[in-house]
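G., the chain you wanted modeled:
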Amino acid sequence: MICEGRVVIVTGAGAGIGRAHAEAFAAAGAKVVVNDIGTSGAGEGSSDGPATRVAEAIVASGGVAIASTHDIADWDAAGALVKLAIDTFGGLDVVVNNAGILRDRMFVSATVDEWDAVMRVHLRGHFCVSRHAGGYWRNEAKAGRMPDARIINTSSGAGIQGSVGQAAYSTAKGGIASLTLVQAAELRRYGVTSNAIAPAARTRMTEGPFAAMMQKPEDGFDAWAPENISPLVVWLGSTVSADVTGRMFELQGGTIRLMDGWHPGPDATLPRRWQPAEIGDAVASLIAQAATPAPVYGA
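Predicted structure as tokens:
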């Protein structure tokens, strides 16, 4: 099996895409820490039920898993989550940062509390777990036990090109894309790769606005099933993906798309300082030479 013996943490694994990841890793031979604080889709409340149910289902099907309800955005709790994986299974090989929440709100109606809540779960959550895991892997490398480790982050199409009514979510997901690039560049020396996915599937966060479009068909291929996202994630978490890092993959149904990030575009150069009155014509020329940006979702 492609992940035989690998130790994997999956955050937000109590339902949806995260649950699909946890079950797919277990089916591929991994030992899985199923992390979920048990909140609503809006990030409210808490319960140990979702994580426990998924872990128990994995064990019942012959896999290896334990449940965790650690708050990934709390620095100490995230450290305890990483320690749980290491103490229970003797190490850590993969972190899948999947947990997230939504605050559907037009920008001019958004509140600072909503903004902070989204940033906390997405950006701080991605940072805290990965930072503790990265520290462990760095210490292993310095001790002569070079890891073959993976970070798999979860961005979004909203983070790549924006989404109307999702200023905070789009900003957080764009930040995750940038974080992935930095992790890939800095952690390679310790045997760690970092990649990101932008998944499109039927989950608690999409079932409201996209319910009609994403409804399950009566027969045939279910293109919006969350399980469609997990095969690439399992592959990225395996040892055979060691030469792939700093990449973003967009996933939906049977499609895997490698995203093409920021690149230098056309330029205009003078051998002196520009004057404000000259800028308009220069910018118009640059825009005319450049590729047309992808439209913002919902625009």
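The first strand starts at residue 7 and ends at 11.

Shout if anything looks off.
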